[in-house]
Protein backbone atom coordinates (compact mmCIF):
# COMPACT_ATOMS: atom_id res chain seq x y z
CA UNK A 1 0.00 0.00 0.00
CA UNK A 2 1.50 3.46 -0.90
CA UNK A 3 2.54 5.62 2.09
CA UNK A 4 -0.22 8.34 1.86
CA UNK A 5 -2.91 5.63 1.67
CA UNK A 6 -1.37 3.89 4.69
CA UNK A 7 -1.31 7.16 6.67
CA UNK A 8 -4.95 7.90 5.85
CA UNK A 9 -5.88 4.31 6.84
CA UNK A 10 -4.06 4.79 10.17
CA UNK A 11 -5.89 8.08 10.79
CA UNK A 12 -9.24 6.38 10.09
CA UNK A 13 -8.45 3.51 12.48
CA UNK A 14 -7.30 6.08 15.09
CA UNK A 15 -10.62 7.98 14.78
CA UNK A 16 -12.60 4.78 15.12
CA UNK A 17 -10.62 3.74 18.18
CA UNK A 18 -11.26 7.13 19.81
CA UNK A 19 -14.98 6.81 19.01
CA UNK A 20 -15.01 3.34 20.55
CA UNK A 21 -13.29 4.72 23.67
CA UNK A 22 -15.94 7.45 23.99
CA UNK A 23 -18.73 4.90 23.55
CA UNK A 24 -17.14 2.57 26.11
CA UNK A 25 -16.89 5.41 28.65
CA UNK A 26 -20.55 6.33 28.06
CA UNK A 27 -21.66 2.72 28.53
CA UNK A 28 -19.56 2.42 31.71
CA UNK A 29 -21.14 5.60 33.10
CA UNK A 30 -24.62 4.25 32.30
CA UNK A 31 -23.85 0.96 34.07
CA UNK A 32 -22.44 2.80 37.12
CA UNK A 33 -25.59 4.95 37.21
CA UNK A 34 -27.82 1.84 37.06
CA UNK A 35 -25.81 0.21 39.85
CA UNK A 36 -26.16 3.34 42.03
CA UNK A 37 -29.93 3.40 41.36
CA UNK A 38 -30.19 -0.30 42.24
CA UNK A 39 -28.21 0.20 45.47
CA UNK A 40 -30.35 3.19 46.49
CA UNK A 41 -33.48 1.12 45.83
CA UNK A 42 -32.11 -1.86 47.74
CA UNK A 43 -31.18 0.30 50.76
CA UNK A 44 -34.63 1.92 50.63
CA UNK A 45 -36.34 -1.48 50.64
CA UNK A 46 -34.02 -2.60 53.47
CA UNK A 47 -34.98 0.43 55.58
CA UNK A 48 -38.69 -0.10 54.86
CA UNK A 49 -38.48 -3.75 55.93
CA UNK A 50 -36.66 -2.75 59.12
CA UNK A 51 -39.36 -0.17 59.90
CA UNK A 52 -42.09 -2.75 59.29
CA UNK A 53 -40.32 -5.22 61.57
CA UNK A 54 -39.99 -2.55 64.30
CA UNK A 55 -43.75 -1.78 64.04
CA UNK A 56 -44.51 -5.52 64.19
CA UNK A 57 -42.32 -5.86 67.32
CA UNK A 58 -44.01 -2.91 69.02
CA UNK A 59 -47.47 -4.24 68.22
CA UNK A 60 -46.70 -7.77 69.47
CA UNK A 61 -44.42 -6.72 72.32
CA UNK A 62 -41.59 -8.99 71.08
CA UNK A 63 -38.03 -8.48 69.83
CA UNK A 64 -36.80 -9.79 66.52
CA UNK A 65 -33.26 -8.45 66.83
CA UNK A 66 -31.43 -11.33 65.16
CA UNK A 67 -33.88 -11.42 62.29
CA UNK A 68 -33.46 -7.65 61.74
CA UNK A 69 -29.68 -7.93 61.80
CA UNK A 70 -29.84 -10.80 59.37
CA UNK A 71 -32.09 -8.93 56.96
CA UNK A 72 -29.83 -5.87 57.13
CA UNK A 73 -26.79 -8.02 56.51
CA UNK A 74 -28.53 -9.77 53.62
CA UNK A 75 -29.25 -6.43 51.98
CA UNK A 76 -25.64 -5.36 52.43
CA UNK A 77 -24.07 -8.65 51.25
CA UNK A 78 -26.69 -11.02 49.83
CA UNK A 79 -24.27 -13.60 48.45
CA UNK A 80 -22.17 -14.12 51.56
CA UNK A 81 -25.05 -13.88 54.05
CA UNK A 82 -26.84 -16.48 51.97
CA UNK A 83 -30.17 -16.30 53.86
CA UNK A 84 -32.72 -13.68 54.82
CA UNK A 85 -33.29 -15.08 58.32
CA UNK A 86 -31.28 -17.18 60.78
CA UNK A 87 -31.89 -20.94 60.75
CA UNK A 88 -34.94 -22.13 62.67
CA UNK A 89 -34.69 -24.33 65.76
CA UNK A 90 -35.55 -27.60 63.98
CA UNK A 91 -32.85 -27.12 61.35
CA UNK A 92 -30.33 -26.05 64.00
CA UNK A 93 -31.12 -29.11 66.16
CA UNK A 94 -30.89 -31.42 63.16
CA UNK A 95 -27.39 -30.07 62.44
CA UNK A 96 -26.36 -30.47 66.09
CA UNK A 97 -27.62 -34.07 66.20
CA UNK A 98 -24.76 -35.19 63.95
CA UNK A 99 -22.15 -34.02 66.49
CA UNK A 100 -21.32 -36.39 69.35
CA UNK A 101 -21.07 -34.18 72.47
CA UNK A 102 -18.84 -36.83 74.16
CA UNK A 103 -16.28 -36.87 71.32
CA UNK A 104 -12.85 -35.37 71.97
CA UNK A 105 -11.45 -32.26 70.30
CA UNK A 106 -12.73 -28.91 69.10
CA UNK A 107 -16.00 -28.48 67.23
CA UNK A 108 -15.55 -25.94 64.44
CA UNK A 109 -18.52 -23.96 63.17
CA UNK A 110 -18.15 -22.14 59.84
CA UNK A 111 -20.51 -19.20 59.25
CA UNK A 112 -22.35 -19.27 62.61
CA UNK A 113 -24.13 -15.97 61.86
CA UNK A 114 -26.09 -14.90 64.96
CA UNK A 115 -25.61 -18.37 66.49
CA UNK A 116 -28.77 -20.53 66.19
CA UNK A 117 -26.73 -23.66 65.39
CA UNK A 118 -24.18 -22.73 68.08
CA UNK A 119 -27.06 -22.58 70.55
CA UNK A 120 -28.32 -26.00 69.43
CA UNK A 121 -24.83 -27.48 69.81
CA UNK A 122 -24.54 -26.15 73.37
CA UNK A 123 -28.08 -27.36 74.18
CA UNK A 124 -27.09 -30.80 72.86
CA UNK A 125 -24.25 -30.92 75.40
CA UNK A 126 -21.23 -29.58 73.50
CA UNK A 127 -19.06 -27.61 75.94
CA UNK A 128 -18.93 -23.98 74.63
CA UNK A 129 -15.19 -23.94 75.40
CA UNK A 130 -14.73 -26.56 72.64
CA UNK A 131 -16.34 -24.35 70.01
CA UNK A 132 -14.27 -22.57 67.37
CA UNK A 133 -16.50 -20.12 65.50
CA UNK A 134 -15.30 -18.81 62.13
CA UNK A 135 -17.40 -15.87 60.94
CA UNK A 136 -16.56 -13.14 58.40
CA UNK A 137 -19.28 -10.61 59.25
CA UNK A 138 -18.04 -8.24 62.01
CA UNK A 139 -21.59 -7.42 63.18
CA UNK A 140 -22.30 -11.14 63.71
CA UNK A 141 -18.89 -11.53 65.42
CA UNK A 142 -19.87 -8.89 67.99
CA UNK A 143 -23.07 -10.84 68.79
CA UNK A 144 -21.22 -14.17 69.02
CA UNK A 145 -18.51 -12.72 71.28
CA UNK A 146 -21.17 -11.46 73.70
CA UNK A 147 -23.20 -14.70 73.65
CA UNK A 148 -20.41 -17.28 73.68
CA UNK A 149 -17.52 -15.72 75.61
CA UNK A 150 -16.01 -19.17 76.32
CA UNK A 151 -15.85 -20.09 72.62
CA UNK A 152 -12.89 -19.21 70.39
CA UNK A 153 -14.06 -16.69 67.83
CA UNK A 154 -12.13 -16.27 64.58
CA UNK A 155 -13.19 -13.32 62.47
CA UNK A 156 -12.13 -14.23 58.95
CA UNK A 157 -12.72 -16.03 55.70
CA UNK A 158 -13.56 -19.70 56.19
CA UNK A 159 -12.17 -20.44 52.72
CA UNK A 160 -8.72 -19.57 54.13
CA UNK A 161 -9.25 -22.18 56.83
CA UNK A 162 -5.73 -23.58 56.91
CA UNK A 163 -4.22 -20.15 57.49
CA UNK A 164 -6.79 -19.39 60.22
CA UNK A 165 -6.90 -22.74 62.00
CA UNK A 166 -3.65 -24.66 61.46
CA UNK A 167 -1.90 -23.11 64.44
CA UNK A 168 -5.07 -22.59 66.48
CA UNK A 169 -6.33 -26.19 66.66
CA UNK A 170 -4.14 -27.98 69.17
CA UNK A 171 -5.77 -31.35 68.41
CA UNK A 172 -7.80 -32.70 65.46
CA UNK A 173 -11.38 -31.41 65.37
CA UNK A 174 -14.28 -33.69 66.35
CA UNK A 175 -16.61 -32.13 63.78
CA UNK A 176 -17.10 -29.27 61.35
CA UNK A 177 -20.55 -27.71 61.20
CA UNK A 178 -21.10 -25.29 58.33
CA UNK A 179 -23.77 -22.72 57.58
CA UNK A 180 -21.74 -21.22 54.73
CA UNK A 181 -23.72 -20.54 51.56
CA UNK A 182 -21.53 -23.14 49.86
CA UNK A 183 -23.68 -23.49 46.79
CA UNK A 184 -22.81 -19.94 45.64
CA UNK A 185 -19.13 -20.90 45.34
CA UNK A 186 -17.38 -22.71 42.46
CA UNK A 187 -17.13 -26.46 42.96
CA UNK A 188 -13.31 -26.35 43.13
CA UNK A 189 -13.48 -23.97 46.10
CA UNK A 190 -16.12 -26.13 47.84
CA UNK A 191 -13.96 -29.21 47.38
CA UNK A 192 -10.89 -27.42 48.72
CA UNK A 193 -12.88 -26.32 51.76
CA UNK A 194 -14.06 -29.83 52.64
CA UNK A 195 -10.62 -31.36 51.98
CA UNK A 196 -9.00 -28.75 54.25
CA UNK A 197 -11.63 -29.56 56.90
CA UNK A 198 -10.96 -33.32 56.57
CA UNK A 199 -7.24 -32.64 57.07
CA UNK A 200 -8.01 -30.85 60.35
CA UNK A 201 -10.43 -33.50 61.67
CA UNK A 202 -10.27 -36.86 63.40
CA UNK A 203 -10.52 -39.56 60.66
CA UNK A 204 -14.18 -40.30 59.90
CA UNK A 205 -15.48 -37.20 61.75
CA UNK A 206 -18.53 -35.45 60.23
CA UNK A 207 -18.59 -32.33 58.06
CA UNK A 208 -22.18 -31.14 58.56
CA UNK A 209 -23.60 -28.70 56.02
CA UNK A 210 -27.10 -27.41 55.41
CA UNK A 211 -28.46 -26.13 52.15
CA UNK A 212 -31.73 -24.73 50.80
CA UNK A 213 -30.83 -26.05 47.40
CA UNK A 214 -32.43 -29.23 46.01
CA UNK A 215 -29.00 -30.41 44.83
CA UNK A 216 -26.36 -31.67 47.26
CA UNK A 217 -23.76 -29.01 48.15
CA UNK A 218 -21.06 -31.52 47.14
CA UNK A 219 -21.99 -34.25 44.65
CA UNK A 220 -21.23 -37.80 45.82
CA UNK A 221 -19.67 -38.76 42.48
CA UNK A 222 -16.67 -36.56 43.30
CA UNK A 223 -15.57 -39.42 45.55
CA UNK A 224 -13.33 -39.75 48.57
CA UNK A 225 -16.18 -39.26 51.05
CA UNK A 226 -19.43 -40.85 52.20
CA UNK A 227 -22.63 -38.83 52.12
CA UNK A 228 -25.80 -38.98 54.19
CA UNK A 229 -28.71 -36.55 54.18
CA UNK A 230 -31.56 -35.65 56.52
CA UNK A 231 -35.17 -35.40 55.42
CA UNK A 232 -36.02 -32.01 53.93
CA UNK A 233 -36.96 -29.75 56.85
CA UNK A 234 -40.13 -28.13 55.58
CA UNK A 235 -40.69 -26.14 58.78
CA UNK A 236 -37.60 -24.05 58.12
CA UNK A 237 -37.91 -20.85 56.10
CA UNK A 238 -36.87 -21.60 53.42
CA UNK A 239 -37.03 -25.44 53.67
CA UNK A 240 -33.57 -26.95 54.01
CA UNK A 241 -31.73 -30.26 54.16
CA UNK A 242 -28.69 -31.27 56.20
CA UNK A 243 -25.87 -33.12 54.45
CA UNK A 244 -23.14 -34.99 56.29
CA UNK A 245 -19.82 -35.85 54.67
CA UNK A 246 -17.17 -38.17 56.09
CA UNK A 247 -13.81 -38.92 54.58
CA UNK A 248 -13.71 -42.53 53.37
CA UNK A 249 -10.24 -42.52 51.85
CA UNK A 250 -8.42 -42.53 55.20
CA UNK A 251 -4.86 -42.68 53.88
C1 LIG B 1 -26.76 -18.76 55.58
S1 LIG B 1 -25.97 -17.83 56.86
C2 LIG B 1 -26.07 -19.05 58.17
C3 LIG B 1 -25.92 -18.44 59.53
C4 LIG B 1 -26.20 -19.40 60.68
N1 LIG B 1 -25.33 -20.55 60.67
C5 LIG B 1 -27.63 -19.86 60.65
O1 LIG B 1 -27.84 -21.05 60.45
O2 LIG B 1 -28.52 -19.03 60.80
C6 LIG B 1 -24.28 -17.86 56.32
C7 LIG B 1 -23.28 -17.31 57.32
O3 LIG B 1 -21.97 -17.54 56.81
C8 LIG B 1 -21.21 -16.36 56.95
N2 LIG B 1 -20.17 -16.40 55.90
C9 LIG B 1 -20.35 -16.31 54.56
N3 LIG B 1 -19.20 -16.44 53.91
C10 LIG B 1 -18.25 -16.62 54.87
C11 LIG B 1 -16.85 -16.84 54.83
N4 LIG B 1 -16.19 -16.89 53.66
N5 LIG B 1 -16.17 -17.00 55.99
C12 LIG B 1 -16.83 -16.98 57.18
N6 LIG B 1 -18.16 -16.77 57.29
C13 LIG B 1 -18.87 -16.60 56.15
C14 LIG B 1 -22.21 -15.23 56.77
O4 LIG B 1 -21.75 -14.01 57.31
C15 LIG B 1 -23.40 -15.81 57.54
O5 LIG B 1 -23.28 -15.55 58.90
Strand order of the largest sheet: 3-2-1-4-5-7-6
How many DSSP H or I helices?
Answer: 8
| CATH fold node name of the largest domain | Rossmann fold
CATH class of the largest domain: Alpha Beta
Point out poorly predicted stretches: none
Key words describing this protein structure:
8 helices, Rossmann fold, alpha/beta, 7-stranded mixed β-sheet, binds S-adenosylmethionine
Give structural notes.
The structure is a single chain. The protein has 251 residues and is of the alpha/beta class. It has two domains: 1-63; 89-247, Rossmann fold. It is built from eight helices and seven strands. Helix 1 runs antiparallel to helix 2 (65-76) and helix 4 packs across helix 5. The structure holds S-adenosylmethionine (SAM). Residues 80-83, 86-87, 111-113, 116-117, 134-137, 140, 157-159, 179-181 line the site of S-adenosylmethionine (SAM).
Amino acid sequence: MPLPALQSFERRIGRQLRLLEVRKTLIERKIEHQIRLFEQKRNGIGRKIEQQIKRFELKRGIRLDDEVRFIRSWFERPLSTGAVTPSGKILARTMARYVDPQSAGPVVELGPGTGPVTEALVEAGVDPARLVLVESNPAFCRILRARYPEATLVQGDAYSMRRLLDALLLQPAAAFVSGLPLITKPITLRLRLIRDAFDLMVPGAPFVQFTYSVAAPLPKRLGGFSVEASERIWMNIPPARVWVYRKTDLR
